[in-house]
Amino acid sequence: MRLLHTMLRVGDLDRSITFYTEVLGMRLLRRRDYPDGKFTLAFVGYQDEAAGAVLELTHNWGVESYELGTAYGHIALEVPDAYAACETIKARGGKVVREAGPMKHGSTVIAFVEDPDGYKIELIQAKGADAR
């Protein structure tokens, strides 16, 4: 078995694709409309689906927003330098909700950003990277 993807429901698919590709640097891997079901799926990621897990962005036509609920936590991305990643994300119009720095009660450098639908994305600085 292997992890294939995580699905997120999004209110504006083009806005979400722009965020994940232009702000976080993922690639749009595929996109398909399902007119009979009134939804569109778009898959984004850093590598092809055969090589690793990706995100499935699901847009249900006519739905502009969702309640995120209290059970969902976040997506985590490893980055070489969390401080630099935050600066890049802000320069590209992204929203940093927790600046890079050591996590509470530990030494791992983390940060959090938020996508256009309010989903949290944790940036975890790669082990061995120089903490500031």
Could you characterize the architecture of this molecule?
Strand 3 (39-45) and strand 4 form a beta hairpin. The chain has a four-stranded mixed sheet with strand order 1-4-3-2, covered by helices on one side. A four-stranded mixed sheet has the order 5-8-7-6. The protein is α/β, with parallel strands linked by helices and 132 residues long. It is built from two helices and eight strands, in the order E-H-E-E-E-E-H-E-E-E. The longest helix is centred in the first third of the chain and has 11 residues, at 13-23.
Helix/strand layout:
Elements lengths: L4 E5 L3 H11 L3 E8 L4 E7 L8 E7 L14 E5 L2 H10 L3 E8 L6 E6 L5 E6 L7
Parallel strand pairs: 1-4, 5-8
Antiparallel strand pairs: 2-3, 3-4, 6-7, 7-8
Give the number of DSSP strands: 8
The share of residues in extended strands comes to: 35-45%
Shape: globular
Distance between the termini: 38 Å
How many strands, what sense, and barrel or not for the largest sheet? 4 strands, mixed
Please bin the fraction of helical residues. Answer: 10-25%
What structural category do the secondary elements indicate?
Answer: alpha/beta
**Sheet with the most strands: spatial strand order:** 1-4-3-2
> What is the string of SSEs from the N terminus onward?
EHEEEEHEEE
